[in-house]
Specification:
Elements (H helix, E strand, L loop, with lengths): L2 H12 L4 H9 L7 H24 L4 H6 L11 H8 L1 H34 L5 H11 L8 H10 L7 H24 L3 H9 L4 H12 L1 H17 L2 H6 L8 H11 L4 H21 L1 H13 L1
Helix pairs in contact: 1-11, 3-15, 5-15, 6-9, 6-12, 7-9, 9-12, 9-16, 12-15, 12-16, 14-15
GO cellular component, one term: plasma membrane
Membrane topology: Multi-pass membrane protein
Protein name: Carbohydrate ABC transporter membrane protein 2, CUT1 family
Length: about 300
């Protein structure tokens, strides 16, 4: 049985069971909500977007423009700040470090989290519930709380001022969220698919690779995006672990750059804009994937 056949069978058995209800929901007129709700939503959106817009536009201004009119628009528009940042080796070195850390952390979180979730969702063994509860409890302990003992452990491992000292803890602290999201996806896969695959001579490893991964792809994409963005924006852990500027990630680079060029506000805003741009673009492109993946996890 191929993954495509399994997906089509899974969709036919779980979806479109009541076609009439879906058609009726489309034909029914949609009611507008309360104006107060829309006002609060727009206010919240404005509070979130306004600082980003200010930082981006500030990079196109001069220091004199910012001093005379802090909330004004660029006049004229200055691109020198962005060009100077893009020409610097410092920015691209920190960008490469952030990409390396984010990709390595994401791969580790997804691979290990998918394997753990598969065992919890599809196998029956003692302390299964306790293991799942342990991962759920991990959501209540953010990295900031454990930063001091974590620093001691990383120091004993000799990973201070090493990118591995950031990657390994990020994988560990990213597993609870991954397991909580993926387990419902894997539990929702019908046992009939696994039985049919076993009849065809597929091993459990083959079933995992050929069936489980394709069927749980929405959840995998969701945890991948969340892990990448979380790793990209992580500031506290690199602050404790990384000492040399050559190993700095972009969040640390922004802090160091703003301290070095504290009098050049426009240049600092340009550097900050370019540092946060990849995460914003990445999140904007895959926003629907995140919502769809989390919805599937809740339904499962």
């Amino acid at each position: 049985m191929s993954a495509t056949t399994a997906r089509s069978w899974f969709s036919s058995t779980t979806g479109s069971r009541r076609p009439g209800s879906r058609r009726d929901s489309r034909d029914a007129p949609q009611k507008w909500g309360s104006p107060f709700t829309y006002f609060v939503a727009l206010l919240f959106i404005g509070v979130c977007i306004a600082p980003v817009i200010y930082i981006v536009l500030g990079g196109f201004r001069t220091n004199s423009q910012i001093t005379k009119s802090p909330a004004g628009l660029p006049h004229p528009w200055i691109t020198a700040n962005y060009i100077n940042v893009l020409k610097s080796n410092r920015f691209w070195g920190e960008f490469a470090n952030s990409v390396l850390v984010a990709l390595a952390s994401t791969v580790g979180i997804v691979v290990l989290g998918l394997m753990v979730s598969f065992v919890i969702a599809r196998y029956d063994f003692k302390l299964k519930g306790a293991m799942y509860s342990l991962f759920a409890a991990g959501l209540m302990f953010p990295m900031v709380i454990a930063i001091t003992p974590l620093y001691i452990v990383i120091k004993d491992l000799g990973l201070i001022d090493n990118l591995l000292g950031v990657i390994v803890p990020q994988i560990a602290f990213g597993l609870p969220t991954t397991v909580i999201i993926l387990v419902p996806f894997l539990r929702a896969i019908p046992n009939e698919i696994e039985e049919a695959a076993a009849i065809d001579g597929t091993s459990r490893l083959g079933f995992f690779v050929r069936m489980v991964i394709p069927l749980s792809l929405p959840g995998v994409v969701t945890v991948s995006i969340l892990s990448f963005i979380g790793s990209w924006n992580n500031y506290v852990l690199p602050l404790y672990i990384l000492n040399s500027q050559a190993n700095f990630t972009l969040p640390l680079g922004v802090q160091a750059f703003s301290s070095q060029y504290s009098t050049d506000t426009a240049k600092v805003l340009a550097f900050t804009s370019l540092a946060m741009l990849p995460a914003l673009v990445f999140f904007s492109i895959f926003e629907k994937r995140i919502v769809g993946g989390l919805t599937g996890a809740v339904k499962g």
